[in-house]
């Protein structure tokens, strides 16, 4: 179980034990393993998409008397061999956030700032400052459904059928039994049978039983189709840069014989994912030769470093994602995408000497959900 306040209590204890004459300054810097001093390390998220495909898998089982279906039942559609057929029924997309290793930051411990008093998820995503925030429950992939048990038509074969000397004779007698059962059913419906019940419920039970016997015996000729539902999942991570007009990526291929297959397996039909930005894309970050790499770079020295102190949060960009095949569009969602947006700064003024500043973030986007002050009751 995740513990959203595990860092809140720990860092509060450490902060109160620090030197009381430390500089009252919120110090947040990009985290570098083995280099960054002690502090609370947190990550901003990047967006991933959980793609959930619901498919029907049908097993086609031929009947024991399949070779005689056309002769005795006038059915020319009876399968002669086993096969499997897949049908793609639905696709859903569920965005979620995972830690972005390129946006790891460390808040140095300081007793005169409330910035280190944070709530984190177990994997280090920042949830809140000066607030105990519970992480959101993870998305639960739905379960598929099992295929029904096949019908055993042999349990309805009479003694004469089972005693037949050949398969052809068994098929002939079984077909005759099917026609006899159908005639009995028609006689019950017309009220012409000697044992026609007067009670409607009992009549319904007799008709259902006759239908069940006919279906089981016909399955010995025309076979059975047993279907179950399977839920397949893929994880897609949108790129950090896309064409402003949108771009299309092959997500996977889907085969009617094999189901979900690799992208390079030409037996499957391509499933395409198109991503189109809904907001204006940010300007490209300056090159490293110009002394910085956007807000993701190390803080500059001198006065500029003093001006850029604070807590880093994400400002995602909204995009439209569509999944479709050549014949059908399955789903479309509009969602924030972290890696297409920018990293912004909450000024250190909000936290230096102000322990009543409360910040909560959206777990899966890293953007600010609420910025407020503690009420007197909460204090």
What is the mean pLDDT?
81
How do the strands line up in the largest sheet? 8-7-9-10-11
Residue share in β-strands = 35-45%
Order of helices and strands: HEEHEEEHHHEEEEHEEEE
Q: Tally the beta strands.
A: 13
> Roughly how much helix do the residues carry, as a percent range?
10-25%
The shape, in one word, is elongated
For the sheet with most strands, the description reads: 5 strands, antiparallel
Structural class: alpha+beta
Number of helices: 6
Low-confidence stretches: 1-26, 31-36, 287-307
Radius of gyration: 34 Å
The N- to C-terminal Cα distance equals 28 Å
Question: Overview of this structure, please?
Answer:
The chain has helices at 6-17, 69-73, 159-162, 167-190, 200-222, 303-307; strands spanning 28-30, 39-61, 83-108, 118-120, 126-129, 224-236, 247-255, 259-261, 269-277, 310-324, 329-347, 357-361, 368-373. The strands form three sheets. Strands 8-7-9-10-11 form a five-stranded antiparallel β-sheet, with no helix packed on it. Helix 4 packs antiparallel against helix 5 (200-222). It has six helices and 13 strands. Helices cover 19% and strands 36% of the residues. Strand 10 and strand 11 form a beta hairpin. It has 379 residues and is α+β, with helices and mostly antiparallel strands.
């Amino acid at each position: 179980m995740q513990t959203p306040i595990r860092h809140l209590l720990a860092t509060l204890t450490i902060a109160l034990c620090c030197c009381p004459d430390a500089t009252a300054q919120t110090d947040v810097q990009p985290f570098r393993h083995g280099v960054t001093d002690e502090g609370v390390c947190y990550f901003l998220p990047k967006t991933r998409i959980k793609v959930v495909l619901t498919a029907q898998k049908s097993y086609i089982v031929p009947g024991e008397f399949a070779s005689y279906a056309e002769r005795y039942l006038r059915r020319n559609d009876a399968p002669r061999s086993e096969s499997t057929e897949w049908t793609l029924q639905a696709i859903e997309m569920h965005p979620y956030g995972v830690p972005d290793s390129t946006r790891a930051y460390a808040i140095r411990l300081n007793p005169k700032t409330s910035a280190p008093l944070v709530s984190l998820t177990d994997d280090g995503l920042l949830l809140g400052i000066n607030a105990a925030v519970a992480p959101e429950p993870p998305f639960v992939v739905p379960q598929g459904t099992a295929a029904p048990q096949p019908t055993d038509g042999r349990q309805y074969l009479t003694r004469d059928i089972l005693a037949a000397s050949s398969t052809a004779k068994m098929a002939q007698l079984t077909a005759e039994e099917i026609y006899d059962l159908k005639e009995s059913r028609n006689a019950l419906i017309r009220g012409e049978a000697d044992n026609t019940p007067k009670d409607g419920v009992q009549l319904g039970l007799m008709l259902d039983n006759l239908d069940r016997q006919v279906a089981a015996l016909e399955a010995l000729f025309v076979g059975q189709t047993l279907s179950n539902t399977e839920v397949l999942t893929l994880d897609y991570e949108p790129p950090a840069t896309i064409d402003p007009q949108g771009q299309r990526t092959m997500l996977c291929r889907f085969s009617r014989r094999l189901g979900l297959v690799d992208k390079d397996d030409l037996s499957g039909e391509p499933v395409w994912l198109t991503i189109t930005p809904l907001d204006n894309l940010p300007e490209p970050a300056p090159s490293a030769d110009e002394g910085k790499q956007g807000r993701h770079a190390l803080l500059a020295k001198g006065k500029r470093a003093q001006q850029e102190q604070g807590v880093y949060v994400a400002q995602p960009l909204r995009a439209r994602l569509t999944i479709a095949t050549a014949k059908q569009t399955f789903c479309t969602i509009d969602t924030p995408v972290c890696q297409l947006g920018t990293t912004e700064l909450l000024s250190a003024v909000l936290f230096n000497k102000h322990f009543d500043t409360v910040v909560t973030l959206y777990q899966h986007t890293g953007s600010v959900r609420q910025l407020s002050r503690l009420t007197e009751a909460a204090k």
